[in-house]
Amino acid sequence: VPLLDRVLVQRVKAEAKTASGLYLPEKNVEKLNQAKVLAVGPGFTDANGNKVTPQVQVGDNVLIPQFGGSAIRVNGDDEVILFRDSEILAKINE
After folding, report:
1. Residue 52 contacts by C-beta under 8 Å, 6 or more apart in sequence?
2. Contact criterion met (CB below 8 Å) for 71 and 11
3. Which of 11, 15, 20, 46 has its CA 20 to 30 A from that of 52?
4. Strand partners, 84
5. 35, β-bridge pairs
6. According to the model, what pLDDT value does residue 70 have?
7. Average pLDDT over residues 60-75
8. In b/e form, how buried is each residue of 21-51, taking b as 16+ CB within 10 angstroms?
9. Strand 70-74 vs strand 90-92: parallel, antiparallel, or unpaired?
10. What digits encode the pLDDT tens for the residues 43-66?
11. Confidence (pLDDT) at 19
C-alpha cells in the first residue's frame, strides 16, 4: 500500500504484433507512457492543515512521464512504478 500521495502503476504493454501479423522481439517493442493505477495512498496534510487527496483512483488509466518514478520488481518479472500524485501527467478517459 503506497504512503502519503504516492500512486503505484503498471505500464500498459505495447503490442508485440504488427498490423500485418508479424511478431516483434520483446527488446524492439517500445515502452508506452500509458499505465494502469494499481494502488493509491491516502494523501497527506499540507502546511495549512488541509487534507490533500490523490486525484486518481485504482483502475484509472493514466499518462506517466517517460522517466522518473521508482521502479519495483514484483513476482520476478512484473515491474511496477511508484510515482507521486503530482508526477502523473493526465488521466485517460475511455
Report:
1. 5, 43, 44, 45, 46
2. no
3. 11
4. 6
5. 11, 62
6. 86
7. 87
8. eeeeeeeeeeeeebbebbebbeeeeeeeeee
9. unpaired
10. 888 888 888 888 899 999 999 888
11. 64
CA distances to 23, 71, 89 from 67, rounded to whole Å, are 27, 10, 12
Rounded to whole angstroms, the Cα distance separating 85 from 94 reads 20
Does residue 18 surpass a pLDDT of 70?
no
Structure-block grid coordinates of residue 22: 508479424
Number of H helices, E strands in the chain: 0, 8
Give the DSSP per-residue string, 74-85: ETTTEEEEEEEG
pLDDT at 31: 66
* Whether the Cβ atoms of residue 8 and residue 82 lie closer than 8 Å to each other: yes
Cell 503505484 sits on residue: 8
Strands (E), the chain: 6-11, 34-40, 44-45, 51-52, 61-63, 70-74, 78-84, 90-92
